[in-house]
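pipeline/complex-builder :: batch 7 item 3
reading input block
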Amino acid sequence: MTPEQKLSALFAAEAPPARDYVFQARMAEAIALRRAWMTVAALVPWAVAAIAILWALIPVVGPMSDSLGSALQPAAAMLAGAAVTTVAALWLARRFGRGIRTPFSAR
Amino acid sequence: MGGLQTDAELVGRALAGSDAAFSRLIERHQAAVRGFLRRMLGGGWAEADDVAQETFLAAWGALRSLKEPAGVRAWLCGIAWRKAQDRIRSSRRSAARDTVWLEMVETPAGVSPEDRISVAAAMAELPPDVRACVALCLADGWSHAEASAALGLPLGTVKSHVARGRARLLKALGGPDDA
């Protein structure tokens, strides 16, 4: 083997495989982690702003909460009832609707 | 899905938020980037792979700065080059550890372990920019112009670096000293 050929062989031996799923999986994990941190970082200013607004509203909302509490009680009960009815309706529709829809989707 | 998409199309999709498109770019260019870093950093390949990971993460974050989407491979190797320079400057590399690792690696047929160690030592002695030119042009077959664009070096400098580096490596393998 000439020195030139040896050099080529040594360079070729260092080449990584054309496809490396382990490396790609590591990269996908690293990118997902980076994206998650970026999402958290993007939410921080909004969270700080929301906390500041709530803190600023305490003197206004605090005295009203006692008088509003009794007035909002019936409305809250109605909203809770509506929510329970909606959840039940969705569950029933999914439970029984599946049997009805199957023949159509199977066509 | 989209097996034959060009780099420019994949870059466009990645810019629109597709992680799958960026994964395809990694799949396509990981061998070039990791091979370049292995030759640049020498020693154990784990360090080169760590720098390759940093390179792709930096590229993901800076994709909007890519001016020529078709030239993504050169752009990635340019980022890898800067990361490798930082690593060379900051790391306390152990020559003894690198030699132990080289002795463990299987050598290609027709090449002795001594040849391998001599070439690794000669590579390590080359200045980083000469090593980068050798890694891209001699080992990976890039043209001088491509290497010049990726490394941000003048074309004439790349040509002279490749010639000088090649002569040094061949001399380490018992070739003529025509540097």
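note: Residues 83 and 89 of chain A are 10 Å apart (CA to CA).
queue -> next item
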